[in-house]
């Protein structure tokens, strides 16, 4: 079965067909990374259609749901093939005051698929929770997600709190979501910003040396 068929089913929002195809691939012993490559390619198409105004929030929600279902199928296979190949640790969460998580979930999925150990703190994460998690989990990279413009202040406060706790020089901080750009990166004091999930993966690889 070709990956292209799965890519098209995902990109065209044919949920039942896409999930069924992924299940068949898993059961037939396909390389889990091939399945993930297909989901990655499909999400790129979904993102392009969203930017062009062909897709809207319901399609993004459905894409996230399909991604979640396929992720649950593939994760056990990945655990077997990549147990010894974890590249490093990434802590991620949607900052205080924001409850958007579709983009964050895709980033978590892609980081996991690329061999990183990821701790997802969820949404509306208080500043202090990030600080405590950095102390306990000891990641090399911290990802702060936020869709709303009010999230920018929370990102800045979180980074300042890491600094005050003496942790800022121990981690690289990337931000992403919504209207995040270079100006927002400069305002918050983050090390970099990512336009999409692959940008986050590339930054993590660059920083951790994976």
Question: What are the defining features of this structure?
Answer:
five-stranded parallel beta sheet; 59% helix; Methyltransferase, Methionine Synthase (B12-binding Domains), Chain A, domain 1; alpha/beta; Rossmann fold; 2 domains; 210 residues
Describe the 3D structure.
The structure is a single chain. The protein is globular. The chain has two domains: 3-84, Methyltransferase, Methionine Synthase (B12-binding Domains), Chain A, domain 1 (Orthogonal Bundle), CATH 1.10.1240.10; 86-208, Rossmann fold (3-Layer(aba) Sandwich), CATH 3.40.50.280. Helix 2 runs parallel beside helix 4 (57-82). It has 210 residues and is α/β, with parallel strands linked by helices. A five-stranded parallel sheet has the order 2-1-3-4-5, sandwiched between helices. The protein has helices at residues 3-11, 15-27, 32-51, 57-82, 102-113, 127-137, 151-164, 182-188, 197-208; strands at residues 89-94, 117-120, 141-145, 172-176, 192-194. It is built from nine helices and five strands; from the N terminus they run ααααβαβαβαβαβα.
Helix coverage percent:
55-70%
Shape estimate: globular
- What's the main sheet like? 5 strands, parallel
How many structural domains are formed by the residues? 2
CATH architecture of the largest domain: 3-Layer(aba) Sandwich
Side by side, the strands of the main sheet go 2-1-3-4-5
Mean pLDDT: 89
The count of β-strands is: 5
CATH topology of the largest domain: Rossmann fold
CATH class of the largest domain: Alpha Beta
**Element-level helix/strand string:** HHHHEHEHEHEHEH
CA-CA gap between termini = 31 Å
Low-confidence stretches: none
How large, in whole angstroms, is the Cα Rg?
17 Å
Strand percent estimate: 5-15%
> Helix/strand/pairing class, anyone?
alpha/beta
